[in-house]
Design goal:
By secondary structure, the protein is mostly beta strands. It contains 1 helix and 11 strands.
Amino acid sequence: CPLGTVRGSDGVCAADDRQGRVVRAVFGAGSGAAARGGSGSGQVEGVVEFWQVSGSSDTSISQTGLDAYAAYTWEIRALRPDRAGHGAGACDDAVVGAVFDPADSARSCTQGDPFGCPVGQLSQRHGTMPLEGESVTDVATPLFGQDLISGRALVLINPADSSDRVCAVFG
């Protein structure tokens, strides 16, 4: 479905009238997304969407068009404040910082203890990214409040070659 619409249970795209907040990382031409190295350096087209009804509710995460990257490690990264985060260099180490961790998590990060994980450690909380048409529920990725993910980067990293990655900045 195009941006601004959602696929209903009948498979038909309709206007997105959900309540709450939606944040998207858009990969594709003109989106400000970037790739670096290996297979990720080709054109990537897709969207990862985070939706949260309120600051006290869980966040639903889904994706469209990125099934080929589902096995990649997926992380939310801070952007270095003195660097531009869009365009061809958005995946460079000089732009993409460390895993987003506003609480400076010190506990072990596992699927069994999602609150022990930094906000950005999506793979360690959920394993692989959901396939198109599926979603995961996340308890630790805020779209409201001071630690929200807007303005951060979603980074998909090839587990066999960490220099092979694609990035998009949350809008």
